[in-house]
Amino acid sequence: MTGTPLETLLEDTRKALFAGDLARLAALAGETEQALFAGIAADAATAPHLRQLAETNRPLLAAAIRGVKSAQRRASEVAGHGRFSTYDSRGQRGVIGPAPTAPACRW
User: Fold this and answer.
1) What three-state secondary structure class fits 45?
2) Three-state DSSP string of 50-84
3) pLDDT tens readout for residues 12-31
4) For residue 7, with 0-12 CB atoms within 10 Å meaning exposed, 13-18 middle and 19 or more buried, which class applies?
5) Is there a contact between 13 and 32 (Cβ–Cβ < 8 Å)?
């Protein structure tokens, strides 16, 4: 059901979240912000539907944010340190990285 521009934006946001379309989400965030600042009013009939759409999107947005932050941390671990962690069959974390360098000989 598509009615007001804000309903359309919220529904498009949900679709972009499910699709993992981060570029579209960024654009929709700006469009939604503009729509809210423009004062698009909701009448008594559409307000509950807008609330339901927003409440449906909230956990999806939170999960997307957690996923992006996790990917950023992981990319930083791998790229920034030249090593990364892995887990063994017992679930114990281990670090894989470059071989340690031998100490310099002083004669």
Assistant:
1) coil
2) HHHHHHHHHHHHHHHHHHHHHHHHHHHHHHHHCCE
3) 999 999 999 999 999 999 99
4) middle
5) yes
Decide: helix, strand or coil at residue 36: helix
Shortest CA distance to 16 belongs to which of 7, 2, 26, 6?
26
Per-residue pLDDT of 65-97, as tens digits, reads 999 999 988 887 777 555 667 888 898 888 776
> Rounded CA gap, 41 and 18, in Å?
27
This prediction has a pTM of: 0.65
Judging by DSSP bridges, how do beta strands 93-96 and 84-87 pair with one another? antiparallel
The DSSP symbol for 4 reads S
The partner residues of 99 in beta bridges, in order of sequence, read: none
